[in-house]
Design brief:
A 5-stranded antiparallel beta sheet has the order 1-4-5-6-3, covered by helices on one side. The protein is α+β, with helices and mostly antiparallel strands. The protein has helices at 44-60, 64-69, 144-154; strands at 21-28, 72-73, 76-83, 92-100, 106-115, 120-129, 131-132. It has one domain (21-155): Thiol Ester Dehydrase, Chain A, CATH 3.10.129.10. The radius of gyration is 16 Å and the shape is globular. The protein has 3 helices and 7 strands; from the N terminus they run E-H-H-E-E-E-E-E-E-H. Helix content is 21%, strand content 30%.
């Protein structure tokens, strides 16, 4: 078995490119998310990651509404998660979602779920590709929506997301 956990992130950082964009979302494990033992069901962790990704996209012009209006879809083509410690019923935690710079027509996002004591509950990543919603074709080059985001990112407009 190959261990994929990386201490400095899952994606290689490109030298000279802007720092990752980061959003933090405070959360609590709800009753409907826990099993009979009071432990958050492992399948919920993907939803926690999605909650972070949604907040991140909303803050940098890559929301689902933005995709829709640009006739784009951004399906997840890779998903990975490493479980470190369990989350329990009513426990508060923070979702960290980081968009990592990539020169390709893709979104590389890393996640961490941080418990109140600072320990890590889970880490992971997703890779999303762009698809033209009209033709169904995969976008080989970066769509205008992503290029606009990158321009703003390079200009330092997202300092609040670091």
């Amino acid at each position: 078995m190959t261990v994929r956990r990386r201490k400095n992130g899952y994606f290689k950082r490109i030298e000279g490119m802007p720092e990752s964009l980061l959003v933090r979302v405070k959360r609590r494990v709800h009753f409907s998310e826990a099993d009979i033992m009071g432990i958050a069901w492992y399948g919920r962790y993907a939803a926690y990651f999605e909650e972070g990704a949604t907040a991140l996209g909303r803050n940098c012009g890559l929301s689902y509404k933005d995709f829709y209006e640009a006739n784009l879809r951004a399906p997840i083509v890779q998903f990975h998660i490493d479980y470190h410690r369990q989350l329990t019923l009513d426990e508060e935690f923070t979702i960290l979602a980081s968009l990592i710079w990539s020169d390709g027509a893709r979104l590389n996002t890393e996640y961490a779920l941080i418990k109140e004591d600072g320990s890590i509950a889970a880490t992971g990543y997703t890779v999303q590709m762009f698809v033209d919603s009209i033709t169904g074709e995969v976008c080989i080059t970066s769509p205008e929506l992503l290029e606009r985001c990158r321009g703003r990112w390079k200009a330092g407009e997202f300092k609040c997301l670091r």
